[in-house]
From TrEMBL:
This is Putative ABC transport system permease protein. It comes from the Bacteria. The lineage of its organism: Bacteria, Pseudomonadati, Thermodesulfobacteriota, Desulfobulbia, Desulfobulbales. InterPro entries: ABC3_permease_C, MacB_PCD, Macrolide_Exporter_MacB. It is found in: Cell membrane. It comes from Desulfopila aestuarii DSM 18488. The chain crosses the membrane at residues 21-42, 276-301, 322-352, 364-384. The keyword Cell membrane applies. One of its GO terms (molecular function) is transmembrane transporter activity. It is a multi-pass membrane protein. One of its GO terms (cellular component) is plasma membrane. Residues 281-394 form the ABC3 transporter permease C-terminal domain. Belongs to the ABC-4 integral membrane protein family.
Amino acid sequence: MRLADIIRFGFRASTGYTARTFLMLLAMAIGVGSVVVLSSLGESAREYVVNQFSSLGTNLLIVLPGRSETVGGPPPLLGVTPRDLTLTDAEALQRSANIRYVAPISLGAAPVSYGAREREVTILGSTAQLFFVRQLTMGQGRFLPEGDITKGSPVCVLGYNMQKELFGTVSPLGETLRIGDYRFRVIGVLAKKGESVGLDMGDVVIIPVASAQALFNTSTLFRIMVEAVDRDAIFRAKKTILSIIRDRHDGEDDVTVITQDAVLATFDKIFTAMTLTVTGIGAISISVAGILIMNVMLIAVSQRRSEVGLLKAIGAPEGNIITLFLVEAVLLSLVGAVLGLLVGTCGVWVIGLIFPNFPITMPLWSLLAAVAVALVTGLVFGVLPAMRAARLDPVISLSRR
């Protein structure tokens, strides 16, 4: 038989039993659609986390007080912090040739008021170099001024949302607002920017780090953000940071230095594993659809005994019979896969509408993998019905017994 005849035969056999064909197409479409949606969610989550960390800056290192290790004893079994990070520690790091920017961070919350408007706001204390480390952009005015980081000036920079809430459409530049018990003059407003690793820069007020320490009555730092001079210098910068802090802290290794690349690599492994896992779950649903195809086609063999008997009676070899049934299974799988891609695309589109801030994307590999698995599943699970049809006795088949 010619290939065109085989395909025509399989198409007519599929359309001859609409209820049976509909069930098989539905099962395959659901399986393929689930693979597309689940793999898209996993891949999009990975890209979202990578973008979030990338928005922090490039060549970034974060210095945290305390060691990332456990110690013996009762819970919580966490490493102790012999000495906190201070502004003088941050100043010492600035002298390294492997480090371009150093931004000490002091973080807390305080009431911010202007006129009759007041709300509790996240206060971020830092220096002028935070602007470059975090890759910020200004909407109005200027950022924190350069100068002695141990001497805080009464100036502040507002996040985009804070400016809208406190001043509305009026320009805040030069205006004075109250933060806790202190007064600060507004010198700038950040440009609108989304969240970055859970911190929305639009909802913060940035003040000099020394002013933040006075406001919160502390001499310690929340962390120190460091930018290496280039990507190749990240490892050297990490060794330098550990060495400088060790010398300043009486020989104690009492800080943890996290590199941006290490964090991204960890998250990448986690989300890659998660994507493969949920894709595997979707592939199981395709296998279930394949089992349905096999069972329905086994029933179809019984329904089409006279048809198979006639083919064998006119001399069709077993190979042709097997090919006819396999082509029918593959056609059903292919059409089901195409419908599944449409279902998956619609599902991803709906998710994008429900969560507009989540960058949902469909990776090309998931589309190709879903179609490939569907075709292989249809072929594999179509073998048994095809072989059963090929073994039918033509005389018994034609006699309908």
